[in-house]
Amino acid sequence: MNIRLETENYYLEVEKLVRNSFWNVYRPGAYEHFIVHNLRKDSSFMAKYAYVIEKDEKIICHINYSVGKISYENSEIADAVVLGPLSIDKNYQNQGYGTKLVNYTLELIEKEDIPYVFVIGDENYYSRFGFESASGYNLFLEGCDFNDECPFFMIRIFDSAQITSKRGIFSNPEVFDVNPDDVDEFDEQFEFKRKIVHENQL
């Protein structure tokens, strides 16, 4: 097993991995591979934290970080790092590879004096890395009700002195907002996969 920085020669293999990992999980089909593709060309992309795990001569795990925005109630705007997407080959899930890659990259980020990192995902999974509900710090995900805890929007704090009591709303980089028709067009280069609707999707 090798942890490597993502390079251009990995791009297509990574996009296939991301597509397969998220296919029919949160919606019929997947958007995440299209986001990963576009993110690399976006100013919000943090290329130095885009890592992969290589095992058995293939990429089995991939992680991205990017920079979103916090809008505070006093009209102040601040940059904020967000983790994701994190993708793990379905044949290698529940074997600790995702944990290794998240821990590895969070250690790099902490050394860079980045005060905190957000993630939008499964609270039962990300809590093992020290992530906790961001609403407890008066920080909310764009589109969520202030009265709802929104447990899947979490924060890992490295420097508590950088956390204020001001209410803030976090928004992902604009590249995360995708047009489904653009995704379908992008998908034409990949192997056909059937879209399925099921009750556990968003």
List keywords for this structure.
single chain, 202 residues, alpha+beta, 9-stranded mixed sheet, 5 helices, 27% strand, globular
Overall average pLDDT: 94
Work out the number of β strands: 9
Overall helicity:
10-25%
- Strand percentage lies at 25-35%
* Main sheet characteristics: 9 strands, mixed
Please report the distance between the alpha carbons of the first and last residues: 34 Å
Spans of at least 5 consecutive residues with low confidence: none
Radius of gyration: 17 Å
Shape call: globular
Instruction: Find the structural class using helix and strand composition.
Output: alpha+beta
How would you describe the overall organization of this protein?
The chain is α+β, with helices and mostly antiparallel strands and 202 residues long. 23% of the residues lie in helices and 27% in strands. It is built from five helices and nine strands; from the N terminus they run βααβββαβαββββα. It has helices spanning 11-22, 32-39, 97-111, 123-126, 180-187; strands spanning 2-5, 51-55, 58-72, 77-88, 116-120, 132-133, 139-141, 153-157, 168-171. Strands 1, 2, 3, 4, 5, 6, 7, 8 and 9 form a nine-stranded mixed beta sheet that branches. It starts with a strand and ends in a 15-residue tail after the last helix.
Explain the layout of strands and helices:
Layout: E1 2-5, H1 11-22, H2 32-39, E2 51-55, E3 58-72, E4 77-88, H3 97-111, E5 116-120, H4 123-126, E6 132-133, E7 139-141, E8 153-157, E9 168-171, H5 180-187
Parallel strand pairs: 4-5, 7-9
Antiparallel strand pairs: 1-2, 2-3, 3-4, 3-9, 5-8, 6-8
